[in-house]
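Q: Entry one of two.
A:
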Amino acid sequence: MPNVARLSTLGDVSGNSLMFRNKIINGNFDIWQRGTSQTSSGYGSDDRWSNEQTGSTKTHTRETFTLGQIDVPNNPKYYSRTVVISSSGSGNYCFKAQKIESVLTFSGSTATLSFWAKADASKNIAIEFVQVFGTGGSPSSSVTGIGVTTCALTTSWKKFIVTVNIPSISGKTLGTAGDDFISFNFWFEAGSSFNSRTNNLGQQSGTFDISQVQFESGSAATPFEQRSISLELSLCQRYYEVLFSTSSNYALDFTYVNAGDYRAMWCFKAEKRARPTAALTSGSSWTAATPTFYYSKSHLGFFNTNGGAINGGSADKAVLYAESEL
């Protein structure tokens, strides 16, 4: 029996051979380690999703489905909402994207994106796929405008299916930094400079809601793959991990070694995509001197030789995050 037929009544495939057909991480919008809203451009709320804008402004939030709703199947708890306030300008835009590790993903083959969406009024959005060959050395130029498709949203939830032929990467050159990827964009608005990448979408204000995003091999959309919350969190933590997420409770102790020497070790819950960067979130314990960091994919070690810059003495604490996003 073909996989599509087999999956017609199968949503939860945890633990069997059909698992991980969805290349999107956090496509169900369950994981929000950074926070539940953002107005800045880039990563800032829903894990693995980059919420981008230039010129125009936006507010992106986590929204909760009404308990027992049946408009979107599989009983999702949350969805993504982007409220755009457009500002006229040829280079202005607002889009939501996910960068999928490795530009080899689906290269030279057919793939299918499926998702649910609605808006505050009848509005179009555009879907675009992009191949990026990384940095370092002399990588090939990015390929944009792949499979550009217009989707007509209404005020009711509707499932959209976009099938795309991803170009071959034969003859291309990868960068040496190991940060190549394939991505796709939900374009909510775009100035005229992006007409070829958005089917002349144009600029618009509005509210755009997205749920249950899946990107898989083949020419047909299968039911949304439901992975456990713990597994999805682990997948997200390959790219971003918070040591402890509130400023009133702490999970990292500095050990006093000798005069002015404070040290600590943080072993990550998930090995990172690359050596991460680390920084303080709110509620940090040092105020003047930043510790010296020693990074690896699996852990973070650091020490501070300026004891006077660390509040509290021999067992000080801090709240940290480690990030290795694309």
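Q: Entry two of two.
A:
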Amino acid sequence: MSNKTKKLRHSNNSSNNSSNNSTTTTITTTTNMKPNEMTIEERKAATMRIIKQLKDLDLNISHPPIKKLFGFLKKYNDDGIRQVINIPFPDVNRRIKGLLSPSKREDTHIMFKYEKFD
């Protein structure tokens, strides 16, 4: 867990007391991030690698399955929730399968698996 410490300085000035009384308060906040979890920047970098590969294949949001995949990528970036991808793509006889994992222990990946659609 990551701890952040802030020190606040409070001064107590009163007209009756001419001495400078001050107290220091320390506030420690803990983030809810687990040690094996990717940061937002790492998730965005993984997403950008996927988007770059889609761009290299000339696949964009004009295809409904790719648009749906972009929805999964956005939710993964924003919320950091593990997403299992399984989207049919009958236009090219493929199924988009993969995993968007916020954990550093699992690989984030997307693949186009051949599948014959009727």
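A: Comment on entry two: The chain has two helices and five strands. Residues 40-114 form one domain.
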